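> run fold Acetoacetate--CoA ligase
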Amino acid sequence: MGARYAVSLPDYHALRAWSVRDLPAFWSGMWEYFGVESPTPYAVALKDLKMPGAQWFDGAQVNYVQHLLRHVEAGDRAKVPAIIFRNERLQGEGRSREIGWTELAQRVAAVAAALHEMGVRRGDRVAAYLPNIPEAVIAFLGCASLGAIWSQCAPDMGIATVRDRFKQIEPKVLIACDGTVYGGKLADRRELIASLLPTLPSVEMLVLVPYLEEASGTPAGLPDLGEWRGQITLWPDCVGFAGARAPEWVPFDHPLWIVYSSGTTGLPKPIVHGHGGVMLEMLKLHAFHLDLGPSAETGDRFHWYSSSGWVMWNLQISALLLGTTICLYDGHPSFPAADTLWHFVDDVGATFLGAGAAYYTGCMKAGVEPRKVIDTSKLKGLGSTGSPLPPEAYRWSYEQVRENIWWGVISGGTDIASAFLGGTPELPTVPGEMQGVCLGVDVQAWNEAGQPVIDAVGELVVVQPMPSMPLRFWNDIGNRRYLDSYFDMFPGIWRHGDWLRITPGGGAVIYGRSDATLNRHGHRMGTSELYSAVEAAPEVLDSLVVDIEYLGRASFMSLFVVLQSGQQLDDALVGELRRRIRDGVSPRFLPDEIVQIAEIPRTLTGKKQELPVKKLLLGKPLAEVVNKDACANPEALDWFVDFARQREAAAGRQETHA
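> ok
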């Protein structure tokens, strides 16, 4: 690329610096490098640098599915599968289901034709309530092939959560499974679907995927659907449809899918991403930051453990754009044993395993030793995201997986369907750090005055546009929610809401959400370092810290801990936790109290609900603080409501006595 643009690019840091110095040239280079096709030429790669509103590849026509399915005819693709799938039911029997590239193309074309027959056209929304199964991949590709807009929720989400998302986008078709398998249990979802459909009057057709029937032999019939008068068809009729439709060319910025913010307050934000932006960002991310390639050439088989409702599902599926085999697992990663996912990785021959940071720390806690039970020599890399990965996890991997295995740690978000920060095998690995800022991403850490800082914690900002930034939020009048979400602090500059430190060597550390920052006597710190110190204690399973700042009063920091079964928070353990914080973090960040609780409240994507807990402890009503349907364990929030009430009553008694 250096020769093509007459620039000297001796190493990664030089390449990244050039990539943001000349965004149009870099992204034109990505277009050419990955052989993106368009029946019409684009005028310029980037017409306007403003945010929001940047115009990418004006005049070009693309289709995510068209680019993906080019691999059907390429080279030796017939010798490698496109998808390898396994679920809990099959895990015990050691069976694996494979779909080849030609079969994938045929099924996608059939589903596209079936959806077209149902009346689905360009711009219509197709909603899905499906687990992490091949049917979800095929349905998504069939939908996108038509230029229709895909949107998915995982089947562990409750009816109110699904309704709040889908009702906003008014889907024409709902594709849903009759049930799921997770943690050794079958969960029937037919009653939920029957209750959901009358709340979605725009849905004209239900496509029922008989997943429960496959798992248990239960017939896939539905109960009474009440006032809903749409039609029902079964998935086998769609995938076996006699017709076939090729992907349609759409403008570069045509909507591809709608994903959702976590919805911790108010209705979840429906985030719209485009075909071209997602395609280019994902190609770049997989090739340069996850070190993947076409399976027929590199042998790569990619697995990132994810719920189908997390944007990491979208990321995993997008590895198909490179011609990489994707390995899907549907079920609990640690059932029936803590090393279940590692056996899956071994059985399918995965060369890259990705998961949330909490999965690896859970393996550490459970004493999982992969190198003793599987052949870890095939694994060339591990990936992590979702929350900061502590240095201890790196050390565990070198001891228990493989010495000096490469970590592709990334940090991005649902908002951009990509990563701001990532890795490359060319750079050294520093435990606790991401290797650097991603190519083509102008990320900086800014202080409160809006000035970039190095080796100091600041707000994560993006000062130039990315192709995969949201086109808009669905039905967002005047772009108000969009502007308020990202451009409220620094107009024209994307503020993501994370604390970031960029090291002098170019590495990066995320310290947690900037709105959950600990501020002790003017010294600021994210929560991740404290969690790392506390959760390293063998007695501690999980923890949450909040710093309550009262107007006119000193701040008060509470640390809540979940302990291993049989453990109690006695004086000795309190002393040990305080020692770990004092020695591992700083005496400035010793909590004012440590409280044992049963569980930490988390979102459906597994994030600790620090800010909602903080607001509850400040006396805010629960209904104003959080949408409980967006919580994985809403009863955990009820505990904090009672805790706040008791504390307020005690404070009132003290003031009265005084």
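The CA atoms of residues 649 and 655 lie 10 Å apart.
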